[in-house]
Amino acid sequence: MMMQSYEDSLAVAGAGISLVDFMVAASKIDEKSPVGFALMPPARHHALLDESKGWCYFENAGIAARYAQRVHGLKRVLIIDFDAHFMSYTNHAFYDDPDIFVLSTHKSVGYHGKFNETGSGLGEGATLNLPLPDGTGDIAMRNVFDEIIVPCVQRFKPDMIIVSAGYDGHATDPTGGFQLTTGTYFTLALGIKQLAKDLCGGRCVFFLEGGPSKGIVSFSVAESFRAFLGEPSMADEFEKKYAVFLHDEPINKIKEAIQRTKSVHSI
Ligand SMILES: [Zn+2]
What we know:
This protein is of the alpha/beta class. The protein has a single domain, classed as Histone deacetylase domain (Arginase, Chain A, 3-Layer(aba) Sandwich), CATH 3.40.800. It contains 8 helices and 6 strands, in the order H-E-H-E-H-E-E-H-E-H-E-H-H-H. A 6-stranded parallel sheet has the order 1-6-5-2-3-4, sandwiched between helices. Helix 1 crosses helix 2, helix 4 (about 140-155) runs parallel beside helix 8 and helix 5 (about 180-200) packs parallel to helix 6. The protein binds zinc ion (ZN). The site of zinc ion has 6 residues, from loops.
């Protein structure tokens, strides 16, 4: 992963808010407007308010969320981060904000992004951290989507959904510890698109976060695009081509994590 310059990071943040402008304008014309996807240099969701961190200067999803509120008058924004790493900035910046719901699934590392970090003050309950065990894969994420993401979005009723789309949970990424597949990313994109269509006039933008090799990120992003465009998934072909080997998922630990999240958030 390469550190961007400050100037590059400014341009990337600007591209993110331009995408929000475009999506808001498009949704006024047609509620079936396509999902926006910012194909920008990745690695942003670790930056802090006053400090660059983890190769990131600015946290674009957070900037775009605030921009959508202040410039376009959208009251409630929901941020979903399915990157395999915990997104420090997004989580902390809106920790006491009831109008920006931050939902993160990430690898369990024990010291941050924990179940009981649920927001504070007026924002209590508007932060959802779901740490998942090593080996989390397609079955787990499908369950997380149905049992956690869908009810949370339905309950929060956002005016816009912003997705920090990190693809480093793919089975071939040595840093993520997960074993998601390109098919998982198809399913997530399809489901999130439908939620946005049903609940917030189709206003939804994806920002590219981390990912493994360029080839796998390309296939995973392409799967997301196929879902947005209503085309069939080509994931099986890809997984065969790269001979992706998958272990059994730790189903009991995954169920436990989902159950704990449901109990903490009264879902
Ligand atoms: Zn990551």
